Every structure is written in structure tokens, then in C-alpha cells.
């Protein structure tokens, strides 16, 4: 059974690799629009035909608007714009700020108490991200050769997503299913992304012929535009299948076997898988600062979860 936990985070890690790859064939915000609208429609159709109760959005309209904006629109738009100039492994690692940020939101919004050990874990976890943030190329830097604009966007994305999960918790308390919430959120966020793309990106696709040179040799009669469109569609389908369908359902299944705390802790393996995939498939290099950050943040996560991890794993 534990192998399914690792399989889950292998799938999660692969979504960062696929996301980085798709940016070679399409505009980032346009891609978000197509992916989220498609996934949202699939989830809503599933909920419509298989759910036993019909729910009305109106009674929690404000929460749904917040979920659309933060969990989907801001989270994915910031992530994918940043991902253009950040390796998939580093973006995945920065997403591991999420447990710390969610804990702070829970502390201030839900007044959930934290022990001294947990506060120490939070502090060490935040400090642990300094080495990887300091390892920058000069053209990326934003403030005193420390924080790059792409990394800042990924961090904003993580903050938005963390708040989005808090909103989702409120919606589930109000009686909505996770499938219905995600369906509304993804479709609404996808529509906003499409509007943004039409205003800002203008052309939906952009790619260099070197990215598809191997396919042009296999299919010499096809134009580069058609091949680029096929590759864009292929990676989009992969992300919907792996990210929106398989990973979502596998995570839900594992929640019936393990605690959310344990699954969050196990999620720290995701950047390591992402680094491996990025190196193998995208020829991305991983610095020693990356692994130093992994070690320090792991210590922070261990301290944060150590009081509740053993007692929350279901036997």
C-alpha cells in the first residue's frame, strides 16, 4: 500500500515536468485556460450524473469566487509564468512552502494552536529555502541578487494555492463535494485565464522549430504549426489525465488509508522525483543548493509534524 503513496508523488512530480515541456509549444496562460476548462467540465459532468444531491452555488457564492481566484486562477497563472524561467525541480521545491504557509493561515484564520516545536519547524523550513533562492543567474535577479521575479511568482502561486485550500475546507464544511468544488473552480478559473490570454498573450501558441525537429523528420509532410499543435494537445491531455484525474482520485483513495498529515509529509519526496524527471527528460541541471535546501526543509517538516505524525497514521 505504501507504494501507492510514492506513486502518487511520482505523478505529482511528473506534472511539473509536463508543464515545463508544454511551454515549448504554447502560451502559458492559454494552456491554463484549455486545461482547466476541460478538466472543470469533466468534473462537473461526473458530479451531475453520479452525485446524489444537487447543490446550489448561490448560498456560498463569495467562497466560490475566492476559490476560483486563489486556488485556480492566481495559483496557476503565477506558477506557469514563473515556470518559463524556473526549472521544474525548483518550482516543485518552492511548492513545498505550502505546508508552512497553510499552517500560518490556519493559525491566523482558524486560531489553530502551534507548539513550540512546530514554530521551530516553521522557522527552519523557511530558512531552508534560502540556499536555493540565492543560487541565481544574473539576468533573473530582482532584488540584490537574491530573489528572482520568476521565483517570486512561484512563491505567490504557492501562497494563493494554500489560501485556496483553506477556502475549499470551508466549502466542504458547507456541504459541497470536492469534485463539485474543483469542477466549479477549474472551469471558472479557466474562463478567467482564457480572457487574460486573449488580452495579454494575443497568439495562443508560440514555439521554435528546434523543439519539434525530431517530429518533423518522422512526419516530413506536416507543417511545423500542425506538429506544434499536436504536441501542445498531447501534453495538455497528459496533464489533465495525470494531474486532474489520476492524482486527484488516488489522493482521495489514500486519504481513506492514511492521515492528511502523513500524506503532506510524504509529499516532500515530490521535488526529488521532479529533479530526476527534469534532468532525464528536459536536460535540467540541479545545483548543490537544491539538495541543501531539501535537507534543511526536510528537518523543518519533520519537526513540524513529529508530534502528530505517528498518531495520525491509520493502522
Describe the structure.
By secondary structure, the chain is mostly helical. It has one domain (2-312). The protein is 74% helix and 2% strand. The protein is built from 15 helices and two strands. The chain has helices at residues 2-22, 28-50, 61-83, 88-94, 98-109, 116-128, 130-134, 149-173, 178-200, 213-218, 224-255, 260-266, 270-282, 288-305, 309-312, and strands spanning 141-143, 147-148. The chain has a two-stranded antiparallel sheet. The longest helix is centred in the C-terminal third of the chain and has 32 residues, at 224-255. Mean pLDDT is 80; it is low at 137-145 and 310-315.
Keywords:
single chain; 315 residues; mainly alpha; two-stranded antiparallel ribbon; globular
Radius of gyration: 20 Å
Structure class: mainly alpha
Question: How does the overall form come out from the CA principal axes?
Answer: globular
Summed up, the helix count is 15
Domain module count: 1
Mean pLDDT across every amino acid position: 80
Largest β sheet strand count, sense and barrel closure: 2 strands, antiparallel
**What is the helical fraction, as a range of percent?**
over 70%
Order of helices and strands: HHHHHHHEEHHHHHHHH
Which blocks of ≥5 consecutive residues have pLDDT under 50? 137-145, 310-315
Strand content: under 5%
Strand numbers in spatial order across the main sheet: 1-2
| N-end to C-end Cα span | 12 Å
| DSSP summary, beta strand count | 2
Quick summary of this structure?
This protein has 315 residues and is an all-alpha fold. Helices cover 74% and strands 2% of the residues. The protein has one domain (2-312).
